[in-house]
């Protein structure tokens, strides 16, 4: 089972807590059966499975593999733990530049064929993301062969979503838009649901 854990700013001592894995810091212990959430003093997150840790650097490498004119012209992205169907996997939620290919959602910045955000090889993006993920850790291939991992999922949100996200989060936190960052790994279920409501295409 995959879960989210802090990396770096927490002194992680993994131990058993009521039968579940927990991350113990000097300030508090967070125990849950499925997710370990970020707290205000934790800034770097990873996705931890039973067989491997997927770091922010790994996730950036995965998204870089699908960013290009022939696949997806990415503008911004975040990643989530996709549990919509077994087995669990990395879910990429992204916004692209240019035309998304849906007339009713045509970006105001899209002008002509050069502005198409979904390239001719977009259908290979999941495989490319998977290959990049495999390159970060040999354990991923073994997990895939054992049926414990599937290809990363890729969902595209409508244009302007991440700008709207910053405004929405800023209003909720009573802070300026410039202070709101889109995390590489998103764990807040309310924020994830907010993004998922704005998905317009899945590859």
Task: Name some characteristics of this structure.
alpha+beta, 10 strands, 25% helix, 4-stranded mixed β-sheet, 3-stranded antiparallel β-sheet, single chain, 203 residues
Describe the structure.
With 203 residues, the chain is an alpha+beta fold. The chain has one domain (56-202). It has five helices and ten strands. The protein has helices at 56-64, 125-136, 138-145, 161-173, 189-196, and strands at residues 3-6, 13-17, 20-24, 29-31, 45-48, 53-54, 74-82, 89-96, 153-157, 199-202. A hairpin with a 2-residue loop joins β2 (13-17) and β3. The two termini are 24 Å apart. Residues 4-43 and 107-115 have low confidence and may be disordered.
How many separate domains make up the residues?
Answer: 1
* Overall geometry: globular
Oligomer: single chain
Q: Indicate the percent of residues in helices.
A: 10-25%
Helix and strand arrangement:
Layout (H helix, E strand, L loop, with lengths): L2 E4 L6 E5 L2 E5 L4 E3 L13 E4 L4 E2 L1 H9 L9 E9 L6 E8 L28 H12 L1 H8 L7 E5 L3 H13 L15 H8 L2 E4 L1
Parallel strand pairs: 8-9
Antiparallel strand pairs: 1-5, 2-3, 3-4, 5-6, 7-8, 9-10
Helix pairs in contact: 1-2, 2-3
């Amino acid at each position: 089972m995959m879960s989210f854990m802090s990396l770096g700013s927490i002194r992680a001592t993994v131990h058993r807590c009521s039968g579940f894995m927990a991350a113990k810091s000097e300030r508090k212990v967070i125990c849950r059966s499925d997710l370990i959430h970020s707290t205000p003093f934790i800034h770097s997150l990873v996705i931890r499975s039973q067989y491997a840790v997927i770091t922010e650097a790994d996730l950036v490498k995965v998204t870089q593999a699908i960013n290009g004119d022939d696949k997806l012209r990415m503008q911004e992205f975040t990643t989530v733990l996709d549990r919509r169907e077994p087995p669990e996997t990395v879910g990429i939620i992204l916004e692209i530049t240019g035309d998304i290919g849906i007339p009713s959602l045509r970006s105001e910045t899209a002008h002509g064929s050069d502005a198409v955000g979904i390239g001719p090889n977009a259908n290979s993006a999941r495989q490319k993301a998977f290959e990049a993920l495999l390159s970060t850790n040999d354990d991923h291939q073994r997990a895939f062969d054992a049926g414990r991992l599937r290809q990363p999922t890729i969902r595209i949100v409508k244009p302007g979503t991440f700008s709207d996200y910053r405004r929405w989060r800023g209003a909720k936190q009573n802070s300026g838009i410039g202070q709101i960052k889109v995390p590489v790994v998103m764990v807040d279920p309310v924020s994830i649901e907010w993004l998922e409501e704005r998905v317009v295409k899945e590859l």
